[in-house]
Amino acid sequence: MSPFELARPATLGAALSLLDREDTDVRPMGGGTALMLMMKAGILRPRRLVSLRSLGAEYRAIELRPDGELHVGALSTLSALEHSEPVRRAAPAICRAMRRLSNVRVRNVATVGGNLAHADPHMDLPPLLSALGAHVVAAGAGGERRIPVDELIAGYYETILEKDELIVRLVVPAQAGWQSNYLKVTTRAADDWPALGVAVNLRMEGSRVRECRLFIGAATDRPTRLPRAEAVLLDAPLDAALLRRAGDAAAEEVECSGDDQGSAPYKKELLRVSLGRAVAPLLASSR
Fold first, then answer.
1. I need a labelling partner for 248 at 20 to 30 A (CA). Which of 164, 177, 213, 272 fits?
2. Of the candidates 275, 10, 12, 45, which has an alpha carbon nearest to the alpha carbon of residue 164?
3. In Å, how far are 31, 104, 110, 235 from 260, measured between CA atoms?
4. Tell me: the pLDDT tens digits for 103-112?
5. Would strands 158-159 and 153-155 be described as parallel, antiparallel, or unpaired?
6. Alpha-carbon span 132 to 215, nearest angstrom
7. Is the pLDDT of residue 21 over 90?
8. pTM (2 decimals)?
9. How far is CA 41 from CA 3, 36, 118, 121, in A?
């Protein structure tokens, strides 16, 4: 690992002042779980790391607002997200998804903000949060801005964040009347990187879908919405035949990418069968 300077600012303002929009050798660090691996492998060789661990407790707070919005500080760990009562009440699919995200040692250290800013296409949170309609609040020298999670990730390990911006908060809108699920499909251990992640969020009336948001991850370089599959599901009674049609539509509309978890054609077939499997539990719970 190459030598580097480690800064430990105590305030958000101090942290932002240490970042440099023009200098890619200066990197912020939350939990550091992915960053350190990349540095040890020689993929990243930063001149300076700006550790965010000394920032105030407000950046670790998890709060369910009276209007149903869930606010999560960017330095909240994935374990905190997994075991949080406000998260369980507001969006239980997040808690369920965390149980199979890597292992407990990683979840105890990795942060929500770091997970999203890392923009690894295999992450479980981005497609799920996209389906939930979540956004992040990013802070920079010019103030704060709101970025929908499905727009945050621009490509493989790439976000639209400026080099001198930091994610400070995740906001999940009120989910009253919606049902959500995340299906993680792995080709090895249950907590390994997914070959495919399918996130589903539906508003139903009886057995009919009135609104839906479907996203996938791991098979594409960013969270990818499935509008054709959504159109199949809308305003039709959900049954096995309809779920098969939606799976076919999803497979036809997406260009999958192959990797160590599976080839592109294999992932396309996974999507064809997995979409219905992700939706089916929500149909059962609505009866």
1. 177
2. 12
3. 25, 23, 23, 38
4. 899 999 999 9
5. antiparallel
6. 10
7. no
8. 0.95
9. 14, 9, 16, 19
For residues 146 and 249, is the Cβ–Cβ distance under 8 A? Answer: no
Q: Compute the CA torsion angle 137, 31, 61, 12 (nearest 10 deg).
A: -60
- As a whole number of angstroms, the distance between CA 233 and CA 148 comes to 24
Rounded distance, CA 138 to CA 145, Å?
5
| Single-letter code of the amino acid located at 228 | R
Residue with tokens 């390990």: 157
Q: Which amino acid, residue 180?
A: S
Query: What CA–CA distance (Å, rounded) separates 43 from 83?
Result: 33
Residue recorded with tokens 């799976």: 247
43-96 pLDDT tens trace: 889 999 999 999 999 999 999 999 999 999 999 999 999 999 999 999 999 999
**SS3 sequence of the chain:** CCCCEEECCCCHHHHHHHCCCCCCCEEEECCCHHHHHHHHCCCCCCCEEEECCCCCHHHCCEEECCCCCEEEECCCEHHHHHHCHHHHHHCHHHHHHHCCCCCHHHHCCCEHHHHHHHCCCCCCHHHHHHHCCCEEEEEECCEEEEEEHHHHEEECCEECCCCCCEEEEEEECCCCCEEEEEEEECCCCCCCCCCEEEEEEEEEECCEEEEEEEEEECCCCCCEECHHHHHHHECCECCHHHHHHHHHHHHHHCCCCCECCECHHHHHHHHHHHHHHHHHHHHHHHC
pLDDT at residue 206 in the model: 84
* 91, 62 Cβ separation under 8 angstroms: no
